[in-house]
Amino acid sequence: MGGWKFLVCLLLLIDLCSSFLVEQQPLVLTYHNGPLLTTRPAVDVHVIWYGRFSPAQRSIVADFVQSLEASKATEPSVYSWRKTTERYSGRSNKAMPMANTRLGKQKLDAAYSLGKSLKRIHITALVDRAIASRALPVNSNAVYLVLTSDDVTVEGFCMSCGFHANIFPRKNFLLPYAWVGNSETQCPGQCAWPFHQPIYGPQTPPLVAPNGDMGIDGMIINVATVLAGAVTNPFNTGYFQGDAGAPLEAASACPGMYANGSYPGYPGNLLVDKITGASYNGHGVNGRKFLLPAMWDPATRSCKTLV
Predict the structure, then answer these.
(1) What is the pLDDT of residues 247-283, one digit of tens each?
(2) pTM here?
(3) 205 CB neighbour count, 10 Å cutoff
(4) Helix (H, G, I), strand (E, B), or coil: what is residue 43?
């Protein structure tokens, strides 16, 4: 081998080795000086049910949202999970009073008024129409949560299990809203894991869902994720890392982490119900158990799990 070729190979080898030796940058969600939904007394979660949901399914989600303010629930609790957002600071750079997060008004759209194949603009339209018809109140310190049933396709579904954004229906203020779909028949290996085998990676057996509904229990994980993002980064000027168009936020910054000992493909050392064999990490109202994602803790600058 010629001398110059040997030198090129040596330089490439050094560069390759150095890439392994570079210390990985810590996960830090930077505050971008915008308002948070934790700065006011309460955050109402108004729910739009789009499509076919049974009363039992609606009660699981409603109980979860009500669990966010259930301070007397058995520990570890959904309430304790939510309180992590209390450590996020606002413009004064001091901890803000924690907002109560409570279940607001609900609207049923079981007739699929916009069809069964929706684009993101249709999600916005559902919120706009609900407000215009006064089915839901106008509240800039609320989250309007659109939930679609398992037979409804949504633009970008499977690339994203849920999202939050905001609309501008009135002058002078924005309204945060969010969407999550039931993935039981659409990419459950991505959006309902670990209650379904993953799309890729180790094919470990799926866990038993704590409320006996793989699709809805998977939705709870994603509802928790978008609500945490909406509270701490409602207008893309709060806490996030990376591009504002595709940010890592409070819960999305900690993907696949649910308990101590988690690693890619393994959710961690979860609690297991002795009777049903279901896996969970948080207690809620009415004896409910839920699985909640880890949340980035500003105090420790690390992902925090309930167990």
Answers:
(1) 999 999 999 999 999 998 999 999 999 999 999 999 9
(2) 0.89
(3) 7
(4) strand
pLDDT of residue 27: 87
Residue 38 burial (CB count, 10 A): 24
Beta partners for residue 165, in sequence order: 177
Strand pairing report for 117-118 and 162-170: unpaired
Output the six-digit token pair for 76.
Answer: 């570890």
Going from the C-alpha of 280 to that of each of 12, 91, 290, the distances in angstroms are: 48, 35, 5
Q: What are phi and psi of 87, to 5 degrees?
A: -85, -5
User: To the nearest whole number, what is the mean pLDDT of the chain?
Assistant: 88
Residue that wins the pLDDT comparison between 18 and 245: 245
In angstroms, the CA 294 to CA 117 distance is 32
294 Cβ contact list (under 8 Å, min separation 6): 251, 254, 257, 258, 262, 303, 304, 305
Are 65 and 47 within 8 A, CB to CB? Answer: yes
Residue 298 has pLDDT above 80, yes or no: yes
Question: What angle is formed at CA 194 by the lines to CA 156 and CA 58, rounded to 5 degrees?
Answer: 70
Q: How far apart are the C-alpha atoms of 195 and 254, rounded to whole Å?
A: 18
Helix (H, G, I), strand (E, B) or coil at 11: helix
Q: With the C-alpha atoms ordered 109, 115, 116, 120, is the resulting torsion angle positive or negative? A: negative
> Domain residue spans in the chain?
30-304
Q: Are 259 and 306 in contact (CB under 8 A)?
A: yes
Residue 102 and residue 110: Cα distance in Å, rounded? 23
Q: How many CB atoms lie within 10 A of CB 9?
A: 11
Whole-angstrom distance, CA of residue 179 vs CA of residue 254: 19
